[in-house]
């Protein structure tokens, strides 16, 4: 459940304390001349008896009795107010909402402060009711009414003037708190109704008032991801903001970071875990510097990576050139196993435990003649191949041209070098042992595939 500023207790929702007294919050005067009064002395005394009852359960009973006897009483604004304040104190939030709605439906019989107080009580009651009874979040009628009432509350705020006896900063603080409350409930209801644009607008209105509200950033992020189609970049950015700003009482950093990572994995379907970790860390670093997502930040989709993987001719040139295209190509190819990569061995292999390390050169050209010319002219390696579990590969020496199958695991752009692990040299390209019958081999110029 999202956090918002919710004032605890019935006293807290009495906005008349700071906003000024209206028809719903002032006490009715006793009428000694019933013929000129909209209510009788008996009505007034019955109201006073109910209003003065200290026991909440007994008070509700007295209010029920009053309504049965005087269903059209002019004192209904005071009766409904007593109902919803007492129901709120009893944590009967469904009843609180029912009687705030009855109060609001009185229309012109209540003034602006009275209407605002009822709308505040309703918003707070809906928040607590949604926590106590989550099924309310699947009730479209209840959600629509909650959103409409919150929007009405925002409008009512503009109709209430600051009382002369209230300090401006106190009044402004109260108005801010109510704006946060109404916008939060409107966002909450809109999201449950799947009106995602409206939910985002309401949540952003909260952030305009409370820029470091980390939970609101989180909620916006999850809404962006729930849209159809998901707004991945915006969603990830808002999630990152929720933890990058290091706000107190924010969402759990470990859990949100794992959620961001999982979203990136699903979106990109890249093979190298360490690259995903790098992307998450880069995102969090950027999100700590700005509330707005830079237009330059994005991550490639699975379709983008598939396109890069299939562009075989651009593989080496793109990686050599660096920049964003190289990042996409590296994401697309890191962790993949490639078969029969033709290379020239630039130095005799060196042993590293059970592994053999080969420094090799692979031409960027794809035309066979150009490849062979490039292979022959090379003077420096551009790949390191780590051969595992193939001791006979030590017979491959400098200037041999061979094919290997291996997993691409490392890349540096300057100096350019690709690293391959778990590699195996094609058995046909390994020289026979001395004294053994020679195997048919492709020869010095036959391995550049």
Describe this structure as you would to a colleague.
By secondary structure, the protein is α+β, with helices and mostly antiparallel strands. The protein folds into four domains: 11-28 and 75-210, Serine Threonine Protein Phosphatase 5, Tetratricopeptide repeat; 212-299, no CATH class; 302-333, no CATH class; 337-429, OB fold (Dihydrolipoamide Acetyltransferase, E2P), CATH 2.40.50. It has helices at 16-19, 41-51, 56-69, 76-89, 93-104, 112-132, 140-157, 168-192, 196-209, 214-226, 232-244, 253-268, 273-287, 302-310, 315-321, 323-333, 368-377, and strands at 337-345, 350-352, 355-361, 383-388, 401-413, 416-425. It has a five-stranded mixed β-barrel with strand order 1-3-4-6-5. Strand 5 and strand 6 (416-425) form a beta hairpin. The protein is rod-shaped, with a radius of gyration of 36 Å.
Give short descriptive properties of this protein.
17 helices; disordered C terminus; alpha+beta; disordered N terminus; rod-shaped; 6 strands; 449 residues; 5-stranded mixed beta barrel; Serine Threonine Protein Phosphatase 5, Tetratricopeptide repeat
Give a quick precis of the structure.
The chain is of the alpha+beta class.
Total beta strand runs: 6
Mean pLDDT: 90
The class by helix and strand makeup works out as alpha+beta
- The backbone outline, from C-alpha atoms, is rod-shaped
* CATH class division of the largest domain: Mainly Alpha
Reported for the largest beta sheet, the result is: 5 strands, mixed, barrel
Low-confidence stretches: 1-18, 20-25, 443-449
Integer-rounded radius of gyration: 36 Å
Helix content: 40-55%
The side-by-side strand order for the widest beta sheet comes to: 1-3-4-6-5
CATH topological fold name of the largest domain: Serine Threonine Protein Phosphatase 5, Tetratricopeptide repeat
The CATH architecture of the largest domain = Alpha Horseshoe
Number of helices: 17
Order of helices and strands: HHHHHHHHHHHHHHHHEEEHEEE
| Strand percent estimate | 5-15%
Number of folding domains? 4
Q: Span from first to last CA?
A: 58 Å
């Amino acid at each position: 459940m999202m956090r918002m500023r919710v004032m605890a207790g019935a006293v807290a929702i009495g906005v008349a304390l700071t906003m000024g007294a209206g028809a719903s919050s002032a006490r009715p005067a006793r009428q000694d001349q019933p013929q000129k009064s909209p209510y009788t002395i008996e009505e007034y005394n019955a109201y006073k008896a109910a209003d003065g009852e200290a026991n909440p359960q007994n008070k509700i009973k007295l209010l029920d009795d009053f309504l049965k006897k005087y269903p059209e009483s002019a004192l209904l604004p005071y009766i409904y107010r007593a109902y919803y304040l007492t129901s709120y104190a009893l944590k009967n939030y469904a009843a609180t909402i029912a009687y705030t709605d009855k109060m609001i439906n009185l229309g012109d019989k209540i003034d602006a402060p009275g209407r605002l107080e009822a709308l505040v009580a309703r918003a707070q009651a809906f928040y607590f009711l949604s926590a106590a009874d989550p099924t309310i979040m699947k009730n479209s009628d209840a959600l629509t009414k909650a959103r409409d009432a919150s929007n009405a509350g925002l409008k009512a705020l503009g109709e209430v003037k600051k009382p002369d006896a209230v300090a401006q900063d106190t009044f402004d603080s109260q108005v801010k708190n109510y704006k946060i409350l109404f916008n939060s409930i409107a966002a909450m209801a809109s999201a449950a109704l799947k009106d995602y644009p409206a939910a985002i607008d309401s949540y952003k209105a909260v952030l305009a008032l409370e820029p470091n509200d980390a939970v609101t950033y989180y909620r916006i992020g999850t809404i962006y991801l729930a849209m159809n189609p998901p707004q991945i970049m915006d969603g990830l950015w808002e999630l990152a903001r929720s933890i990058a700003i290091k706000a107190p009482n924010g969402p759990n950093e470990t859990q949100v970071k794992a959620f961001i990572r999982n979203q990136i994995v699903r979106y990109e379907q890249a093979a190298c875990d360490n690259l995903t970790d790098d992307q998450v860390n880069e995102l969090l670093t950027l999100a700590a510097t700005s509330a707005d997502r830079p237009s330059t930040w994005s991550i490639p989709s699975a379709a983008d990576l598939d396109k890069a993987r299939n562009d075989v001719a651009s593989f080496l040139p793109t990686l050599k050139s660096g920049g964003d295209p190289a990042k996409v190509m590296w994401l697309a190819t890191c962790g993949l196993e490639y078969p029969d990569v033709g290379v020239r061995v630039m130095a005799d292999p060196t042993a590293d435990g059970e592994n053999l390390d080969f420094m090799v050169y692979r031409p960027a050209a794809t035309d066979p003649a150009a490849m062979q010319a490039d292979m022959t002219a090379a003077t420096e390696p551009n790949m390191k191949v780590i051969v595992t579990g193939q001791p006979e590969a030590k017979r491959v020496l400098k200037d041999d041209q061979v094919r290997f199958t291996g997993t691409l695991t490392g890349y540096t752009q300057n100096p350019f070098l690709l690293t391959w692990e778990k590699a195996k040299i094609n058995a046909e390209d390994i020289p026979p042992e001395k004294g053994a019958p020679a195997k048919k081999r492709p020869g010095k110029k036959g391995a550049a595939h």
